[in-house]
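Weekly puzzle thread! Below is a chain. First person to post its structure in token form gets bragging rights.
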Amino acid sequence: MTTKDIFISLALMALWGFNFSVIKLGAMQVDPILLTALRFTFAVIPAIFFVRRPPEAIGFLIAYGLIFGLGVWGMMVWSINLGVSAGMAGLLMDMSIISSLVLGYMLFKEAITLNKILGAVLAVSGLLASLALTDGSVPLRALPLTLIAACSWSLMSVVVKKSKTKHVFAFSVWGMLFAPLPLVLFAYAFNGIQPFVDLPAQLNSQVWFSILFQAYPTTLLGYWIWNRLTVKYPLSTMAPFTLLTPIFGLIGSVIFYHEGVSPMKLLAYALILGGLLVSQWQPKKAVAVRGH
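Winning reply:
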């Protein structure tokens, strides 16, 4: 991997990590589901007019938009609105290690290796450690939303894999076309018309910054860069970089929101990120453990 691409990858992880602080900036002022709908609206327009539609079936695109929009980011932004800190949000997203393990075995008959089991155990231990935090950075009422978001991240990967797409960026852009409407309907179903009435008065400079930062640098530019690098280099080379996203997320939250970093929080980070790292380790001779 070239030095230039290493620095680009590090910058991208910093961008994705700091994005959780930017999300919080908007989520504390606007209905979180509507904020996410606006993010994907601006991410799609005008990009979709310059990106040719991929040949995959529209059902895959709809599923991708629904899961990525409502399942991943709708639930995660809602959890941030309910009090999950920007520093912990990115870390809890990595709980997708558990759902990915289960879905991989059930849908693709992927081997459940010993290192994946150990990684899952470490991740669950980290989740339990996060519940012991007393600074309010992981409120219990918001935890189910973060776990739904993490599971949805795994489901999104299943959709991409099942589609067998070779046009990942175009697939992402066109899939996001189907994200705003479900988010708008969800916001109306849960909160009625009031968030829509309040929205125009809430669109101040901070909220606009949050929306546009999420839409363009984070989503469009970020995924374009990531897709280019994953085509250029093996996944085993790129995957470890993702471990840095929650670390940058915590750094951003400390800088912008003065989030405390207790020994218990560091333990939660060490366990979950350690679990993710262990689960990705690929020894030459993996020991497969399958169910009966």
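Puzzle host: Confirmed. Bonus trivia for everyone else. Residues 92 and 146 are 6 Å apart (CA to CA).
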